[in-house]
Every structure is written in C-alpha cells, then in structure tokens.
Amino acid sequence: MRRNKQSALTETTTYILLGFKHPNHGYGVMKNIAELTHHRVNIAAGTMYGAIENLLKQEWIEEVPGGNARRKLYQLTELGICVIESEMERLEKVLNHSKEIMRGVK
C-alpha cells in the first residue's frame, strides 16, 4: 500500500479508505463495500485486517474512541483524506482522457 505522487491506489485500497470516511470497524467496511458494489468487490477478513494494519502504519487511518476489544473503530486521518482526494483526481483525469479518446469511436 505504499504510495508516492506517481502511483495509483488499488481498487480495494480505494474502497477501504472510503469506508473509513466516518468511524467504522473492518467488518462494517467489508459489508458496505460489498453492498455498494453489488458484491462485485468482496473483501475477505484477512485482507481487511491486513489492510487496516498497513493503513495504520501509513498513518492514513487511526483508531478512534467508541469501539471495543472485538470491533475497533477507525477513521481517515488528514493524510488519508489527502491520499483519497489525490486518487479521486487521478481517476477523474483517467476517465476524462478515456472519454476524450473514445469520443466518436463506434
């Protein structure tokens, strides 16, 4: 999950980060992503908890009060917000370039 200004986030990482816009626990994010994507993206528990560990190390999310020993709550940090906003800008450019290139093709 390393990221510099030149690299893109994976689709899974993007969805996980978005899932922590508001305080949530890993299972809640997994469920929300599955529902949002109509089960096109399903994240296994091991993947989620490994991602949480990495996102904590990157300081993109932080633990917040209100959880318990079984279900800790996490939320985006200011850095995490910057990362997701940067990714949204990158994806928007890709979409705009794709539309520009494909205009008139059919």
From TrEMBL:
Domain Transcription regulator PadR N-terminal residue range list: 21-80
InterPro entries membership: Metal_resp_DNA-bind_regulator (IPR052509), Tscrpt_reg_PadR_N (IPR005149), WH-like_DNA-bd_sf (IPR036388), WH_DNA-bd_sf (IPR036390)
PANTHER family: PADR-FAMILY TRANSCRIPTIONAL REGULATOR (PTHR33169:SF13)
Name recorded for this polypeptide: PadR family transcriptional regulator
Species per Swiss-Prot/TrEMBL record: Lactococcus hircilactis
